[in-house]
Amino acid sequence: MDWEPTQFEVNLTKTGEKKLQDKVNHAIMRLICVCGVVPSVVDSNEWKELMNLLNHKYKCTPSDDFVKKIIPKEAAAVRKKTIKLLSKESNLMLTFDGNSTKKSNSVWFLHVTCAGQRDSYLVDGYDGSDERHTAEWVKDLILKTIDKIGIDNFCVLRSDDTGNTHRGRKDTNEVVLTILNLSDCIHFLQNTSKDISRLPGYQDFIGKMKKMITFFSKSNYSVADLDKSRKDAGISKGLSKNIELIRDRVRSGKLQPKDKDVLNTLKNVGTYARFRSDMHEYMAILDPIARSLWALESPHTNAALCKE
């Protein structure tokens, strides 16, 4: 007599297969999102072969399901847990900024940072491509995020100081009086660096530096030659650290930049001395600003370390 599974055994098998399917799909979803894997990879024959070798009971899920169902569902669940977690915290800081994608779409992101461990969470993202980014529009974005977590949980609002973000912060502060309106000192330091780099006295030096960088970016041979020479001499990477080595390679004919200005700078003693003097002066001025930016961008920097 042939054995036939009972309905209970059939249901149990289906339940086990569904659990396997869900667990593998969740692992693949994490691989796609965390490691930046292109979702269409799961549609390839190579991927299906791999999955079949690992577990033939797993049925490959098409990429459309990951893009349209699994990933959005997980994102909604993570966001819900994030808001629930943040609603139990106090002294939160809200930061926001807008940017453009490669396709010229305007996107805005709002992050919330906890006071204790300084953990930052992406809470909201908006596509504002078809809207005018007025101060009123910025204020509405901020208030929506604040309302989801709770007004009483926040103590600081921070962003860069472009016209609409500055005014948006100020208008929000007029609505929520308990939130401190802080400018972004990092943005001011970056603008300071840009202003220094625009000074007429540095234009000749910066122009030559750009030409040297362009030369190496377009010559694989020159990069390989300099890299080998640098390693042999025990010098770390960086154009300023290798300028003497570059000059020696050019004067010996091993490196041959086509730009006459670069050639003259590296071969002529007086021109090179002026170039090197300008480089050391420029770096001496900007080095403290660069180090300040590294320190201030750390999540462990506190208000006592920030002086605007």
How would you portray this structure in words?
There is one protein chain. By secondary structure, the chain is an alpha/beta fold. It has a five-stranded mixed sheet with strand order 3-2-1-4-5. The protein is 58% helix and 11% strand. Helix 4 crosses helix 5 (163-175), helix 6 runs antiparallel to helix 11 and helix 10 (260-267) crosses helix 11. The protein has helices at 7-35, 45-54, 63-86, 135-149, 163-175, 185-197, 203-217, 220-233, 243-251, 260-267, 269-296; strands spanning 92-100, 106-113, 120-127, 154-159, 180-183.
C-alpha termini separation: 87 Å
**What is the number of helical segments per DSSP (H or I, 4+ residues)?**
11
List the uncertain runs: none
Total number of β-strand segments?
5
| Strand percent estimate | 5-15%
Average per-residue pLDDT, rounded, comes to 86
**Helical percentage:** 55-70%
What about the largest sheet?
A: 5 strands, mixed
**Computed structural class:** alpha/beta
Short description:
This protein is an alpha/beta fold and 308 residues long. It has 11 helices and 5 strands; from the N terminus they run H-H-H-E-E-E-H-E-H-E-H-H-H-H-H-H.
